């Protein structure tokens, strides 16, 4: 059985920010985990590719996606509106 959306997003974030599962479990604040503007853009591209979605230009702001749940909710919303 495949990973659900939340697990897939978490896995992409962990790989991109190069944090372990234990580090990621301690805090879901991505800036505290080391997300930079460069890694944010990389995350967007990876998520768009993985889920075949496109982030709206108006939503391309790092402060809108400080937490794992922000990304998960956005991806789920985009998938549901396809």
Written overview of the protein:
- With 82 residues, the chain is an all-alpha fold.
- It has one domain (5-80): Orthogonal Bundle (Non-ribosomal Peptide Synthetase Peptidyl Carrier Protein, Chain A), CATH 1.10.1200.
- Helix content is 57%, strand content 0%.
- It contains four helices and no strands.
- Helix 1 (5-17) packs antiparallel against helix 3 (37-51) and helix 1 (5-17) crosses helix 4.
- The longest helix is centred in the middle third of the chain and has 15 residues, at 37-51.
- The radius of gyration is 12 Å and the shape is globular.
- The two termini are 23 Å apart.
Keywords:
single chain; 82 residues; mainly alpha; Non-ribosomal Peptide Synthetase Peptidyl Carrier Protein, Chain A; 4 helices
First-to-last CA distance: 23 Å
- CATH H-tier superfamily: ACP-like
CATH architecture: Orthogonal Bundle
Number of DSSP strands? 0
Here the CATH topology equals Non-ribosomal Peptide Synthetase Peptidyl Carrier Protein, Chain A
What structural class do the secondary elements suggest?
mainly alpha
Strand content: under 5%
Can you tell me the overall shape?
globular
The helix count comes to 4
Helix and strand sequence = HHHH
Number of domains: 1
The residue fraction in helices comes out at: 55-70%
Provide the CATH top-level class. Mainly Alpha
Nearest-integer average pLDDT: 91
Determine Rg (CA atoms, Å): 12 Å
Runs in which pLDDT lies below 50 for 5 or more consecutive residues are: none
Oligomeric composition of the shown chains? single chain
Largest sheet: none
